[in-house]
Design goal:
This protein is an alpha/beta fold. Helices cover about 35% and strands about 15% of the residues. It has ten helices and ten strands. The protein binds manganese (II) ion (2 copies).
Amino acid sequence: MSTPKPIYGPADSMQTPRFSGIRTYARLPHVTDDLEHADAAIVGIPFDTGGTFRVGARFGPEAIRSASALMRPYHGASGVPVFELLSVIDYGDLPIIPGYFEESAERITAGLTTLHAAGVVPIALGGDHSIALPELRAAAAVHGPVGLIQLDSHSDTSDAYFGRPYTHGTPFFHATNEGLLDVQRVIQVGLRGPIYSGRDYEIPREFGFEVLTAGEVHELGMPEVAKRILERVAGGPVFFSFDIDFVDPAYAPATGTPEIGGFTTWEVQNLVRRLVGLPYVGFDVVEVIPEYDVAQNTALVAANVAYEFLTLLARSRQSAP
Ligand code: MN
Ligand code: MN
């Protein structure tokens, strides 16, 4: 079959330089009123008062969009003309209320449900990781319980912090209890750092998740880790959540709760590029706090992670019968 030509794509950087114009992700058009002609949408979710340590991820979407001006239309490593295969829009930011998780979550869920229902795959730019709960509520409302690939230093499966249920340390506890996850198809990868107790790693395993610590990932190497992930999440819709603290703070210092002993930017690319062929229904990259950044490094990593996500979508479209 021949794929119809995408309606929406980036501005041509051979006509106007990429540092010019109003910043959207990768110079894509800002579109909110036409979901029919879009395959994927970049969505900013600038909610950051779920953070328990550093805050400021409310400026994450803006910083990631700014760094994304460097994204080019062709994924050189895999030979994929990303924007010839996919029609992509920048949907702007969802309207959150700083300090009010539950009200913000309702708005995030509503906004993303609209995209899912229209068959548009959201790629969310956080925001702190608390936004994963409303993201999963929206994904599950349309697709049913989803499998999850979570790349993160932390499990984020505590039941509460400070006696309060909704923080960036708790989204996957609540998502499990709300039945949003197909727990047999959940894998958390990259966990490391000082923890509160051994329970931190027991809880996700009791939920039925597979957990690979950072030490295990370093020992196994990315090709084997990718194999484990692909085996684990196969068989249904998949949500891919990328906490930027998966990356070593040497490469991504600007984040809420940095942990040493992480992964290089090449290891990130090497892993994510192998996770091809899955029926992805949503993505996010979260926990970028530009105030702590150095030379835009962290924002650039996040912009490239979102670009790898787009490439995964484009490659599944390319290989579609
Ligand atoms: Mn997290
Ligand atoms: Mn984390």
